[in-house]
Each structure stands twice: as C-alpha cells, then as structure tokens.
Write a structure and sequence with these properties.
Isopropylmalate Dehydrogenase, single chain, binds manganese (II) ion, alpha/beta, 40% helix, binds 3-isopropylmalic acid, 2 domains
C-alpha cells in the first residue's frame, strides 16, 4: 500500500494532547516518506454538548473505511444520558460492537526509570498481556439494560461459544508470538473467570479448556477473578497472557496499570478481523486537561501497536520497524528520567514528545 488512511478522533479532556503527541511521534518515526495520512473527525462528550450527537454518522463511516483508527480519550463526568450513563463513551463502545473489535490487547510492562508501587520489583519483572474480550460479556448490555418500574435494574451478561472460542484462540496465538515474557521458561495462558459461582463463567472456562487442547505447546491454568486481583499484586512476574471476559478485563487493566506506573503507562489495541482501533486504556482526565502535563506514553505505545498491526496486515515491513524504534526510544526516554507528573517527574507532554521525536530523527 502507498497510503494508509488513519481516522483520528481526539475526544475529550487530555485526549487532544496525547493524541497529537502520538501522531507527531509516528510521523517522526516514519520520516519524510511517511505513508500514513491522518484525518481528524469529531466525537465525544464535548461534541455531544455542542451538537447533541456524541458519535456522528460521518465519523463512524470514516472509521469503518479507514485502515486504522487512533483515539485520544473520551467522556466527561456529568455529560450523561437521561439513564445516567456517559454519552462520551459512545465512540469507544459503539466502535467495539459495530466493527466487532473482539480482541482488546493490553500489554503490562514495567519500564526502567518508572517506579512500581510494589516492593522489590524492577524493570522487566512485570511483563505480561491482558487479553480482554471486547465484544460481549457484561458490556453487551450497554444500551440494552432495563429499569423496571424505576425499582429494578437488569443488565445481562452474554457469552457465546463463538465469542469465547475466538478470544481464547487469540490468547494462545499471542502466547506463541511471545507477547509478554515467558516465565520460568514457560509460555502460559491464564484463564481468568468466576467459574465457581456463575454459569456464564463456567462456560467460558469449559470452552477455554476445549480450545487449549489445540495448543499443547502452551501451558494453561485457571484463576478466579478475585484471586487474580491479589496475584497481580503479589506475583505479577508469574504471568504471560491472561484472557478474560470483557468487564473483568476492564477492571484488571486498571489494577495492572497501577503496578507499572499508572494509567498513563497503559497502551491498548482493539482489533477485529477487519478493523483496528488504538487508544490508551486511560480516561480523559479532565482535571489536568489543557495544562500540558498529560502523560503521552500510553498513547504513543498504542500508536506503535497500530503500526505493528498495519504492517502485519499489509506485509509492509516499514511499519513494524518504525514501531520497534518508537518502543526503543520510549524505553530510553523513560530510563533517562523523562517523566511526566503522574510518574513523579517534571516533564511536560511537549518535552516528552519533542525528546522522543528528536531521538527518532537522530
Ligand atoms: C477502557 C475504558 C472504557 C471501558 C470506557 C472509556 C468505555 O475504561 O477502555 O478500559 O470501560 O471499557
Ligand atoms: Mn477501563
């Protein structure tokens, strides 16, 4: 491909700041012949306040047609529908469902230079991937829940055999492709559920066990979600690839991010068979928006994942090469103390972005 069309949605709060940073970094990594064309489209809470629409149809069409989608962050507290749910989340949630972005890949890695709140862990000790099912589970109830007579609220958790099977296969493939570090020489997929209490999770586990038979080279284990929350604090070095239902994956993502420096260090890739959507796992952080101090690393690393995905899909080696450079330079910047306020540093978003770009150009 000569040109890749990237649909860019800045979104709300710090979204525009971190998104612009990531675009700058990608352009620097690919140089003057950069084959990516970035086009901005509106969506989010602020757009909803202005126009009454959180996710305009033309933005949806552009996202569907694009080769990849890059997002800053969406949502603002108080910008809600009459039922109390946030309007600004439509962009992210509708893309997931309507483009069938079933795999949400969230690498959790402790970088040199970043301090973990966990005692005694150093760079490299934490390096695993949370694979969050992104198209069903409890989130499938978004917009479809019921409130009965103002007294009883119901949301339904949906898990299908096909949905579980494809996310579990993806987990094993990620383990084979050496996502995350092998532990004690073992590549391992951990199935995280609540099979002891709920039928839907028992089903998830049983489909996991069936699919696992096709991957005899990968070790497997089960962990209950509550115990998992503890394990991610007490023995994060044990894990390689963790697969779970949508809502559990959402919750574990934030816990895991906290162990490697916080939400600012949590990249994410949401992919289906046809489309890819890239944004950090964090929210729009309106409290620090516009101050120029937001941590851009999560979005920069998400953009690197976008280049990997595009390159793999199109057999274009330039893109993963650029992604690798972005990761190397990011690592060097962090190790050199280029830290934003959330990482207890003093560097601004612009300073970090400028440094990353300079090193890429060098
Ligand atoms: C995430 C976010 C989203 C979610 C929000 C923004 C809809 O928290 O990507 O983890 O709940 O999935
Ligand atoms: Mn989340």
């Amino acid at each position: 491909k000569d040109v890749y069309q990237i649909a860019v949605v800045h979104g709300d709060g710090i979204g525009p700041e971190v998104c612009a940073a990531a675009v700058e970094v990608v352009k620097a990594a690919l140089g003057p012949g950069c084959p990516l064309r970035f086009t901005e489209y509106p969506a989010g809470a602020e757009h909803f306040l202005k126009t009454g629409q959180s996710f305009p149809q033309p933005t949806f069409e552009a996202c569907r047609a694009a080769d990849a989608i890059l997002h800053g962050a969406g949502g603002l507290p108080g910008v809600v529908y009459p039922d109390g749910t946030e309007a600004g989340l439509d962009f992210t949630l509708r893309l997931r469902f309507e483009l069938d972005l079933y795999a949400n890949i969230r690498p959790i890695r402790l970088f040199e230079g970043v301090t973990s709140p966990l005692a005694g862990v150093k760079a490299g000790d934490i390096d695993y991937v949370i694979l969050r099912e992104n198209s069903e589970g409890l989130y499938a109830a978004r917009g479809a829940g019921a409130l009965l007579r103002g007294e009883v609220a119901v949301d339904t958790l949906v898990q299908t055999r096909a949905g579980i099977e494809r996310i579990v296969r993806k987990a094993f493939e990620l383990a084979r492709q050496s996502s995350g570090a092998p532990r004690d020489g073992v590549r391992r997929v951990t199935c995280c559920d609540k099979a002891n209490v709920l039928r839907s999770y028992a089903f998830f586990r049983s489909v996991f066990d069936e699919v696992a038979k096709d991957y005899p080279d990968i070790a497997t284990e089960h962990a209950l979600i509550d115990a998992m929350a503890m394990h991610l604090v007490l023995k994060p070095g044990h894990f390689n690839v963790i697969v779970s239902e949508n809502m559990f994956g959402d919750i574990l993502s934030d816990l895991a991010a906290a162990t490697v420096g916080g939400m600012g260090m949590a990249p994410s890739a949401e992919v289906g068979d046809a489309n890819g959507f890239f944004q950090a796992a964090h929210g729009s952080a309106p409290d620090i928006a516009g101050k120029g101090i937001a941590n851009p690393y999560g979005t920069i690393l998400s953009a690197a994942a976008m280049l990997d995905w595009l390159g793999r899909g199109h057999g274009d080696e330039r893109l993963p090469r650029a992604a690798e450079q972005i990761r190397r330079v990011t690592e060097a910047c962090l190790a050199n103390g280029l830290l934003s306020a959330d990482l207890k540093g003093k560097s601004s978003t612009a300073e970090i972005t400028g440094n990353v770009c300079d090193r890429l150009a060098a």
